[in-house]
Amino acid sequence: MSSLGGPRPAAGEQPGARPHLWAAGGALLLCGLAVLLGWVWLRWHRACGIPPGPKPRPLVGNFGHLLVPRFLRLQFWLGSGSQTDAVGQHVFLARMARVYGNIFSFFIGHRLVVVLNDFHSVREALVQQAEVFSDRPRMPLISMMTKEKGIVFAHYGPIWKQQRRFSHSTLRHFGLGKLSLEPKIIEEFRYVKEAMQKHGEAPFSPFPVIGNAVSNIICSLCFGQRFDYTNQEFKRVLDFMSRGLEICLHSQLFLINICPWFYYLPFGPFKELRQIERDITCFLKNIIKEHQESLDASNPQDFIDMYLLHMEGEKKASKCSSFDEDYLFYIIGDLFIAGTDTTTNSLLWCLLYMSLNPDVQITTSVICWLRAPVCPGWRTRAKVHEEIERVIGCDRAPSLTDKAQMPFTEATIMEVQRLSMVVPLAIPHMTSEKTVLQGYTIPKGTVVLPNLWSIHRDPAIWEKPDDFCPHRFLDDQGQLLKRETFIPFGIGKRVCMGEQLAKMELFLMFVSLMQSFTFALPEGSEKPIMTGRFGLTLAPHPFNITVSKR
Ligand code: HEM
Ligand SMILES: *[C@@H]1O[C@H](CO)[C@@H](O)[C@H](O)[C@H]1NC(C)=O
C-alpha cells in the first residue's frame, strides 16, 4: 500500500485537496470582499462631512505606520514611514495641516482620527464642548494594564471625576501648609548639586541625576520617603517602569491591541511585561501595606496616607464608594508615569538652553547674532543670574514666595516649555457623542489629537516662533504677561492634574541650580540637535554639560 501510494501523490491527494482549495478560495474571496466593503465604507464616510484628509487605503487606513512598530511596517504598502520617524509625529501632522487645513482626519484601520492644529479648534473642542471631547480611547493593551482605573486613561464619567477631584486637591496640599514639598525639593537639590560638583570641570551627562531627583520628589509626595541615588531596589523599580513604557510603545506588544489574548503568551516581551507588572505591583502593594499598618489619622504624611484616610471616611459614609486600595495603586502608578518624564525632560531642556553660549547660539539665525544687542534671546543666562542675585542672593535657599518678583526667570522657563513642548500631542482624547466642530461632523468614538506643538509654533500667535525669546512673555514694564494661547499642560477637563505642582517644581529646581552654577557645553562640543527625541515625551538628545561654581 505504502509503496504504491508513495510515487503517486498527485492522484492520492486529488479527492482530499478539492475541499481545501475551495475553502481557501472561499476564505480569500470573503476576505477580499470584507476589505473592499471596508474600503467603500471608509470612502463613503469621508463623504459625510468629516474633516478632510488623505484618501484611506483598504484595511489599514492612512497611517497604520504611525502606530505600528517599525518592524511590522510594510514600507512599500504604507508609504512614508521613515519620514515621520525623522521629524517626529507632531511635526509631520503639522505639515499635513498645511495641505488639508487646521482640522483634518485620517484612518488607522477603521478608526477615525481627527487632528486639531490651531488654538481655536482645540479650545472649541476641549473647553466649549468639553462634555463630548473628554473621553479617552479604548485600547486593549492600556485597558489590560490599567484595568480602566487610575486617572490618566480612565473613562470620562463620575468615577474619574471623584478620583480626580480628590487627587487634585490633595496634590495642591503639597504646594502649601505642613505637607509642603518646598523643603523636600530644596533638600533633594542639595544632593543634586553635590553630585554635580563631584565632576569638577569635567563634562558629564545631567540625565541620570536629574531623573533620579525628580522621581524622588514624586516618591516623597506619594510614599513620604526618598531613595538614595545608590539604592539598588529603587533603581530597579525605576528601570522597570521605563522599560515597561518602552516595550509598550515599541514592540510586538502592539499586537495585544489586535488580539488581546497575546498578553498571556509565555515568551518575549509578553512574558517580560507580565514580569515587570508583577514586580512593580509587589513593590507598591508592600508600600501601601506598610502605610496601612502605621497610619496615624491625626497626622497624614503623604498621598497614600491621605487616600487611605479618605477611603475609610467614604466607607463609613456609604457602602458603595469608588475609593479602594486597588484604585490607589493605579493612581500612584499614574503619578509616576505622568509626573516623572515630563518634569525631568522640561528641566533638562532648561539646562540645555542655558548651556548654549547665550551670546551667540541661543538664537537660531546668524543675522540675529550680528544684531546681538537687540536680539531677544541674548544674555538670557546672565539675566536669570542677575535676577536671582537681586531677589534671593547667594546664601538663602529659593522659595516660592520669590516667584512674584522674578518675572524674567519665569518667562525663561515658559519660553523653554513653549519651544520644547515635552507633551506635543497631549494624551489622545475620544468623543463620547456625535458632534459638529467648526462645520465638520465628528462621529462618536473618534480619536482626537490636540496638536499642542503646532499651536506653540504658530506664526499667527508667536512672532518668529522658532526663536528663543523669553521677552515674548513680558510686557514693557518687564512684568509677566499671561498668554491664553500658552497651554503646555493642555486645557479643558482633562488638563494636566499636576500643573500647579509641576510649575512649582520647575521653578524651585531651576532656580536652585542656577543659583549655584553656571552651565555650559563642553569646550569644542557641537551644538546638540534641538528637535526632541520622541519617546513617551519629547526628550532632548543626549548632551553633556560642564558646571562652574558661581
Ligand atoms: C512640566 C511638566 C508637565 C507637563 C508639560 C504636563 C503636561 C500634561 C498634558 C499635556 C496632559 C494631557 C492633557 C490632555 O489630555 O488634554 C497631562 C495630563 C496629566 N498630567 Fe501632566 N504634565 C506635567 C507634569 C505632571 C505632574 C508633575 C503630574 C503629577 C504628579 C502630572 C499629572 C498628570 C495627570 C494625572 C494627567 C491626566 C489627567 C486626566 O486625564 O484627567 N503631570 N499633563
Ligand atoms: C558625554 O561624555 C561621555 C564621556 O564622559 C561620552 O562617552 C559621550 O559620548 C558624551 N556625549 C555627548 C553627547 O557628547
From TrEMBL:
Its main location: membrane. This is Cytochrome P450 2U1. Pfam families: p450. The chain crosses the membrane at residues 21-42. The keyword Repeat does not apply. It is found in: Microsome membrane. It comes from Apodemus speciosus (Large Japanese field mouse). Keywords: Endoplasmic reticulum, Heme, Iron, Membrane, Metal-binding, Microsome, Monooxygenase, Oxidoreductase, Transmembrane, Transmembrane helix. Belongs to the cytochrome P450 family. Its cofactor is heme.
